[in-house]
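Can't paste images in this forum, so I'm doing it all in text. The chain is below; anyone willing to post the predicted C-alpha cells underneath?
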Amino acid sequence: MADLPILYSFRRCPYAMRARLALCVAGIACELREVKLSNKPPELIAASPKATVPVLILSDGTVIDESIDIMRWALALNDPQDWLSGDDRELIDRIDFLFKDHLDRYKYPTRYDDCDPKEHRAAGLEILKELDTRLAGQPYLCGDKPSLADMATFTFIRQFANTDRQWFDAQPLPHLQRWLESHLSSELFAAIMPKYVLWQTGDAPVMFEPVELT
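Text version of the structure:
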C-alpha cells in the first residue's frame, strides 16, 4: 500500500473524473481519498497549496496536481487503448479554457459580476456546434476510436448538458449528443463513478482499483 500513489478526488468533479478515467484505463491502482471541497483536509493543502482536485502523490513524493498532466503521466506508463494517438492539445485547451470559462458562468452565474448566463450558454453552444460538425463524419473526435481528446473533454460537456438537460437535448447537436451518450453509458465511465465515503485523517486506506474492461 505504501508504494501506491495517493489520489485526492471528488466524485462529481469533471477534472477528477478525467484523471480517474486515465488511471483506470492505464491499470494504475491508487489509494483514493475522497474529499469534500468545502472542508479540505490539511494533507491535501500541504501537498498542493491550490488545494483543488485531483491531486496525485507518487510513491517518491512527486505531486501532480493538474488533471491533464495526471492523464498524460498515466498513459505514458501504459496506454493499452492508444489514447495518446489522439492527444489534440489545441482542442483540449479550447475546452479547458474557453469552453470552461463559458461553462462556469452559465452554471454558476452568481459567482461573477454582471454575468448573463444565457450569453455564456450561447457561446458554449457555438463551441459544441463545432464539435458536432467534427463528429458528423467520424464516431470520435480524432477518428474511429476513443482517444485522449474525447476522454479529456466529455466530462465538461456532461456538466454543460446537465445544467439544463431538457434545453441541451433540444439543441441541433445530434452527433455530439450521440457521442456524449456513448461515453456516459460506457463500462469505463461506470467503473470510475462508484461512491466513496469521505476520507479523514487516520482512516484505513480505500483502494481505487482499475477493473478489467471487456
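The mean pLDDT is 96. The first helix runs from residue 14 to 25.
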